[in-house]
């Protein structure tokens, strides 16, 4: 529901989809693009039918608005009249109607909780849901529940702090063993100090306005075997602090990660290099007083204001090259995030991104994704099936596996592109294959020139069964897939038909 361009990207009638292989084309409705929607929202037209008034909506009232031409949906307590948006919804009207006259928060979160509906639908805001009658005795309102959970749930992390003359150390006891420097994200801006720890599917937040000023740089240490995180802050003045600070929103909360909003910080564009005719390597610099490492296989969301509306799209960070050896990054050097991004001339977001000048800012979210590094442990054969920019999650997986998995015998990448000119980092891949005998790469082109002597066509059972040879009958295997959604879905089905088990396949999706 609501602004789903990337999930089914390229759209069925996208310029990216050369109509070969009998795949169908569905024409885009004229005048119903995201840009058209934004124009409509800026036109001053009354999109709610309430002439700008905001109202309190009861559940009974919400239920009444369940038709296409009168459709209200509640997301996180706010009610929107989405009827004017119906024809602009990239996921289709039926998808939007699934939540008609009801609370669509769960549906929304399942599909794309990252979409900034607040900005996209601000002109459709009808009002808030009316507060429910007082809760029965003994129950607490939501804001207190999370805090109580954090204190009472024995599995919940907790925090403490102590100080010396010059330092303040915040200690987070995660009660989890499998944590590392990726597990905690720290942002200190003005007087807000925020440390979010992600353990399994939960997020634990320490969020305070510090009582005293601190210096820009701090260090983050992890004691893995006891699950302890230490954030060491340097005081600006050597005075004794009476308290750490004042609690801010959701301080000391321990809630499912899916229920947390995405937190963004502004990063500066420091360089932009051509990689192919349409793909560029962007380097963004994190702001000072930030600790953020994107785990292998995860993506972030980039956010830019486009004609006054904040637009968000997912991107997967890569390393600066295939040869930057994987090492545990140590602050303060770990401040750059690299992205390989294809610019679509008719796209909505990427042309704007491409317009940014060195020194301009773009907001970057906390990481998301369901790839778990332990999937690579004790692995013997790693197969990577990538199409186009679906190569991006493979970069860190490849680097990590070759550097950190001693059991690894071979890594094979099958890389699907239209033409030779579209192949990202081709010479690096070939050099890596030459340098490291465990690595092999095979390029498959769907629109090759007559000179191309390599493989051609699309992902197919024949290509896969020839390519996916285990190094022994019992070898531990992982197959990673990423590309346009239909590519990934077809690939998954073929792999199941070839008798690979669910545990042996990982597909990268939003
Ligand atoms: P869009 O506006 O989405 O348009 C792209 C093209 O499709 C254009 O040619 C446009 O004309 C056409 N089009 C759009 N909508 C339709 C439609 N409804 N019907 C027909 N045609 C249509 N991309 C990268 O380059 N690098 C990455 O690292 C990366 N990581 C990603 C990670 C994840 C988890 C996901 C889900 C996607 C990732 N992507 C990545 C893709 C990225 O999020 C965007 O989808 C992509 O950059 C296109 O955005 P855009 O707004 O510029 O183009
Ligand atoms: P592209 O150049 O359009 O396509 C790459 C190759 O895949 C081409 O050979 C193309 O063939 C082929 N292909 C496309 N659709 C196919 C299908 N249905 N079946 C079989 N082969 C197919 O790719 P792109 O523009 O770089 O797009 C990359 C995609 O990967 C985007 O959709 C992006 O959202 C996604 N992505 C996802 C993630 C993630 O983590 N989930 C990360 C990065 C990128 P033809 O075009 O010749 O038909």
Distance, first to last CA: 14 Å
**Helices and strands: which structural class?**
alpha+beta
Oligomer: single chain
- Helix proportion of residues, in percent? 10-25%
Strand adjacency order, main sheet:
20-19-23-16-17-22-21
Portion in strands = 25-35%
* Shape verdict: globular
Bound molecules: flavin-adenine dinucleotide, NADP nicotinamide-adenine-dinucleotide phosphate
Name the average pLDDT. Answer: 87
In the predicted model, the low-confidence regions spanning at least 5 consecutive residues are 1-28, 134-150
Mind summarizing the main beta sheet?
7 strands, antiparallel
Report the radius of gyration as a whole number of Å: 25 Å
Number of beta-strand segments: 29
How many helices does DSSP assign? 11
Describe this protein with a few key phrases.
11 helices; 29 strands; 6-stranded mixed β-sheet; binds NADP nicotinamide-adenine-dinucleotide phosphate; single chain; 510 residues
Could you walk me through the main structural features you see in this protein, from its secondary elements to its overall organization?
- This protein has helices at about 35-40, 60-65, 95, 105-110, 115-120, 140-150, 350-355, 390-405, 425-435, 460-465, 485-495; strands at about 55, 65, 70-75, 80, 100-105, 125-130, 160-165, 165-175, 185-190, 190-200, 200-210, 215-225, 230-235, 245, 255, 265-275, 280-285, 290, 300-305, 310-315, 315-320, 335-340, 360-365, 380-385, 410-415, 440-445, 455, 475-480, 505.
- With about 500 residues, it is an alpha+beta fold.
- The structure holds flavin-adenine dinucleotide and NADP nicotinamide-adenine-dinucleotide phosphate (NAP).
- Flavin-adenine dinucleotide binds near residues 28, 346 and 347.
């Amino acid at each position: 529901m609501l602004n789903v361009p990337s999930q089914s990207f390229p759209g069925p009638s996208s310029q990216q989809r050369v109509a070969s292989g009998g795949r169908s084309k569905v024409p885009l409705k004229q005048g119903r693009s995201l840009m058209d929607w934004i124009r409509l929202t800026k036109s001053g037209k009354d999109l709610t039918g309430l002439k700008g008034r905001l109202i309190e909506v009861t559940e009974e009232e919400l239920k009444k608005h369940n038709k296409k031409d009168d459709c209200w949906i509640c997301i996180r307590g706010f009610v929107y009249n989405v009827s004017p948006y119906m024809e602009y919804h990239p996921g289709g009207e039926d998808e939007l109607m699934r939540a008609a006259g009801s609370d669509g928060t769960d549906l929304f979160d399942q599909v794309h909780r990252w979409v900034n509906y607040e900005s996209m639908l601000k002109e459709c805001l009808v009002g808030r849901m009316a507060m429910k009658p007082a809760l029965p005795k003994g129950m607490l309102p939501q804001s207190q529940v999370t805090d109580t959970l954090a204190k009472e749930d024995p599995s919940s992390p907790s925090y403490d702090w102590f100080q010396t003359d010059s330092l303040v150390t915040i200690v987070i006891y995660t009660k989890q063993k499998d944590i590392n420097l990726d597990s905690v994200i720290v942002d200190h801006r003005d007087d807000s100090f925020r440390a979010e720890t992600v353990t399994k599917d939960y997020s634990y937040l320490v969020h305070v306005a510090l009582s005293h000023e601190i210096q820009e740089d701090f260090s983050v240490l992890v004691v893995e075997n006891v699950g302890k995180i230490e954030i060491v802050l340097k005081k600006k003045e050597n005075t004794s602090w009476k308290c750490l600070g004042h609690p801010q929103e959701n301080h000391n909360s321990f809630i499912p990660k899916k229920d947390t909003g995405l937190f963004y910080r502004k990063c500066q564009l420091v360089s932009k290099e051509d990689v192919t005719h349409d793909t560029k390597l962007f380097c963004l610099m994190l702001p000072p007083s930030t600790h953020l490492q994107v785990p292998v296989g995860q993506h972030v969301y980039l956010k830019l204001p486009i004609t006054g509306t904040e637009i968000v799209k997912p991107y997967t960070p890569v390393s600066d090259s295939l040869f930057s050896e994987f090492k545990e990054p140590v602050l303060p050097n770990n401040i750059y995030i690299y992205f390989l991004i294809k610019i679509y001339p008719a796209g909505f977001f990427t042309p704007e991104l491409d317009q940014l000048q060195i020194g301009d800012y773009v907001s970057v979210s906390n990481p998301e994704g369901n790839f778990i590094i332990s999937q690579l442990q004790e692995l013997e054969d790693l197969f990577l099936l990538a199409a186009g920019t679906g190569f991006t999650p493979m970069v860190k997986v490849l680097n990590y596996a070759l550097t950190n998995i001693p059991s690894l015998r071979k890594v094979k990448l099958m890389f699907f592109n239209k033409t030779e000119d579209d192949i990202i980092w081709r010479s690096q891949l070939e050099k890596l294959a030459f340098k490291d005998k465990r690595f092999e790469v095979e390029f498959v082109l769907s629109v090759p020139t007559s000179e191309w002597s390599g493989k051609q066509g699309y992902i197919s059972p024949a290509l896969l069964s020839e390519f996916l040879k285990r190094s022994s009958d019992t070898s531990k295997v992982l197959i990673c897939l990423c590309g346009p959604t239909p590519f990934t879905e077809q690939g998954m089905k073929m792999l199941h038909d070839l008798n690979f088990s669910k545990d042996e396949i990982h597909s990268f999706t939003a």
